[in-house]
Amino acid sequence: MNNEEDIRQEEEVAISHAADAIPSGEDAADLTEDDIIVGEEGEEEGEEEVSGRSSAHPSLKEVIKENAREDEKPFSSTLALKTILGGDILNTQAIRRQVWLILLITIFAILYVSNRYSCQKQQIKIDNLNTELKRSKYKTLSLSSVLTERCRESHVVEMLRANNDSVIRTADQPPYIIMIPN
Fold first, then answer.
1. SS3 of 83, please?
2. Conformational region of residue 25, where left means phi above 0, alpha means psi within -120 to 50, and beta covers everything else
3. Do the beta carbons of residue 35 and residue 11 sit within 8 Å?
4. How confident is the model at residue 161 (pLDDT cuts 50, 70, 90)?
């Protein structure tokens, strides 16, 4: 007797919780008055179901279990563009089961994009440094050629002639080595 009362109380609690869970539209049309047991007749039929579990009338728990799925339809094998664009595909159990995989793919995509962005920044920096290096090489080469030209003997002699006050002259005799004995 206690067991039957416990079951009846659980069904009453389930009825109060399932009032919002009963689907509307096509799924609600499938439910009949026999599926939800209420009133004095329900108590008699409920006792029969608890004791006998007739296959013609499923229990309230079974009805709630079948229909309390947030209007979720099973995943169909045919995909239509309408279901994909409408977002109905996101409601299916297949997507819910694969949510961790989708999350992992999203993380990898974010890492891929950020890595590519940082590589592009480094390539731009390398290109800028290469152009700066080329400019520095050209500048060094041009300064070296100017220095080489100014250090030539002919240019130095010309500068000395331009300055009349200079005492330095070009040697007439070739240089010779002075040997000092130890």
1. helix
2. left
3. no
4. confident
Q: Is the pLDDT of residue 132 over 80?
A: yes
Q: Which two tokens stand for residue 15?
A: 């009825």
Spatial CA neighbour of 60 closest among 12, 116, 105: 12
Residue with tokens 């994009």: 113
* pLDDT surpassing 80 at residue 112: yes
CA angle 103/105/107 to nearest 5° reads 70
* DSSP letter for each residue of 31-100: --TTTS--HHHHHHHHHHHHHH--SSS--HHHHHHHH-STTPPPPPSS--HHHHHHTGGGGSHHHHHTHH
Residues 72, 73, 75, 80: what is their CA dihedral angle, to the nearest 10 degrees? -110
49 CB neighbour count, 10 Å cutoff: 20
Q: Which of the pair, 109 or 85, is modelled with greater confidence?
A: 109
Query: CA angle 97-102-104, nearest 5°?
Result: 120
> What three-state secondary structure class fits 20?
coil
Q: How many separate helices (H) and strands (E) can be counted in the chain?
A: 8, 0
Provide the pLDDT for residue 46.
46
Please report the pLDDT score of residue 40 as a whole number: 41
47 pLDDT band, cuts 50/70/90, is very low
